[in-house]
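Q: What does the assembled structure look like for these inputs?
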Amino acid sequence: MKAYKDYTTDELNALYRSLLVQYKEYQARDLQLNMARGKPCVEQLDLSMGMMDVLSGDSDLLCEDGTDCRNYGVLDGIKEAKILMADMMEVSTDNIIIYGNSSLNVMYDTISRSMTHGVMGSTPWCKLDKVKFLCPVPGYDRHFAITEYFGIEMINIPMSPEGPDMDMIERLVAEDDSIKGIWCVPKYSNPQGYSYSDLTVRRFARLKPAAQDFRIYWDNAYTIHHLYDDDQDHLIEILAECKRAGNPDLVYKFASTSKISFPGSGIAAIATSHNNMEDIRKQLCIQTIGHDKVNQLRHVRYFGDIHGMVEHMRRHADILRPKFELVERILHEEMDGLEIGTWTEPRGGYFISFDALPGCAKAIVARCKKAGVVMTGAGATYPYGIDPADSNIRIAPSYPPLPDLEIAARLFALCVKLEAAKKILTERGEAVPAK
Amino acid sequence: MKAYKDYTTDELNALYRSLLVQYKEYQARDLQLNMARGKPCVEQLDLSMGMMDVLSGDSDLLCEDGTDCRNYGVLDGIKEAKILMADMMEVSTDNIIIYGNSSLNVMYDTISRSMTHGVMGSTPWCKLDKVKFLCPVPGYDRHFAITEYFGIEMINIPMSPEGPDMDMIERLVAEDDSIKGIWCVPKYSNPQGYSYSDLTVRRFARLKPAAQDFRIYWDNAYTIHHLYDDDQDHLIEILAECKRAGNPDLVYKFASTSKISFPGSGIAAIATSHNNMEDIRKQLCIQTIGHDKVNQLRHVRYFGDIHGMVEHMRRHADILRPKFELVERILHEEMDGLEIGTWTEPRGGYFISFDALPGCAKAIVARCKKAGVVMTGAGATYPYGIDPADSNIRIAPSYPPLPDLEIAARLFALCVKLEAAKKILTERGEAVPAK
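A:
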């Protein structure tokens, strides 16, 4: 295929007209498809239905140590749940606190606590004139929403397939003590599906931030969320690496079973150093008497152990893999050689990241929407919803059934083509054909 | 029985010696009993075991509106859960947000949000020099712990069987705009089991606080937690009363099913005005994608409706009532006429409040502990753990089996007697017998 930029203006005009005809055919179909959020599909949810049967009216709901999971108590999680989640998060059970149903909520609480009470004795952030966070971009919109909500200034850090720009991070945290944290999705990152390289993780562990209360927010959301059995990314375990580097308190690590059992009905956890845990517990014992231990026990009895959980994730992968491969195949079929966009092909996680020609993302997403396909809002992958290049679009292939996904992906490619042709024509000073 | 104060000093000395002999007999028994926390007992937990069976691997987990409870979404609770909790809380479904497993956590979040973001646009409390809360005393230690954690100054408000001292409250909130809230357990209060009178509730609804961001924290923890079918306290519904009084935004009402289904595995809710809900939702949508909808559905399918829930509470009452009556009977048997203590005899809730002679509470609780019976710490029912009269002790009769409870209550009475005799002897300038 010839690159669009090498088309003559007449060829581009003709192309644009024919694409517009195709687009109108899609519009006539009254589609209602959604590739916006990383939602598991119904078949994935069905995988965990056995979880509804592991506890019955005849079950004892006792932990091995005799704790009755039905009553008050146990602030930081039952021992069995700590073992399961610690294995999943690759940390010691001594370094883990089990929470409720949402790791996002744990991250929110962590920022909120730092605002009102500081970090391990530091000045509460709400008493400071300025607090800043580093935000590898593109990234996860809900992370950025938390820091924005608390009035924390966000600084974009470019991502590469190795992870965020470590030169920039090292320099910034060393020189500016108002920088208090960085949002990371280190494995199968949201949205690019990149996993941080060994060197990147090592440099993270060796950061020398000017602020004593600087913390790495390590959201390991996709730790065992591989698409392939034999082709998995490996991430160096950050807690151990920080400890080895003499920076034991530098990191909070977050995870949950939201995309393992049921989103909204899973269990979440934080893993961190003993000093940080002590700091957290001071808040936690005020905030709650304890999280849902029955649900912790339900997870433990259903999965058994980390091996059971990993086997379970193979079944998720069997459902997700064809969806990723379908979208990637269509993007190749539709766009190879056109030089109108690039995309990632991750080995895990929930997203494909697409970069359109600069200035086209908003228009592409709007065009998809007008034809009945909802994408993540353009800009959502950047702090304040502002993608400076207006280029990045997150594709979430998990939810729609394969036939719908094919339609949605083809329509998406069509919208990319239309906006690319339009952009090039406009840059050449041409009027864009109305039909 | 003759009042201790009317004993001669010789009589008191003899009495003290004989009580001490009895006490040593208890000590020799190596007791391990607990009347410290309002924990349901095993038989109460067993009442809800059917809840483990209402959802099975074959169940559909769909709401009536088609929402799949297993997936992400629904920020403020499924409709069915709103209906159930709204009926329980005596409010409209339009005025309710369903949360996770803990109403304490909702209260914490409410204070925390006010600290960082203010209330409906007011200055964030963390930016103010001084924030104060009114605390009816004796009250709930975990309430006071939240306000203490956030550095909020607490002001004691005396309780009477009608509720807190409304003259004092009206005066204080009108003259001091740094007073931002008041903690209330308006029905079967913790620890006295008092329910606010109609007049008290009406005066609450008509408060004219100097601070626009003053809110009543109405923790209706024991709303349907009656001990008697035919002798129930009735509380005027505060949201409606505030609305009628032209103060629709004055109150946050909290409740949960912690002592209905399972503590730690129930569902919690807040009920409040639309303006307050809008304010809350701005935070909530940042904090979480949603709470545990599967557990919401489990509760709805198990209880069916409010009638099912009320019937369920009759079964709780059948277990709790004999425990309350046993403790009250023993207190009467042991102490009537001695004038060494008074206590409440509530018609619902989880506690009996005992007032010893001033200056004796700490010593009584310590003495109980030395003989193997753990009571709520003396002072816990007051802000900062300081009971100015050192008189109030909270008795929690729910957890121990009846035979244990009888032993614990008799020992408690014995310790009250010992400390009363000691106090009177000391006041008369007498040395207290060593044995």
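Chain B has two domains: 4-44+310-427, 65-304.
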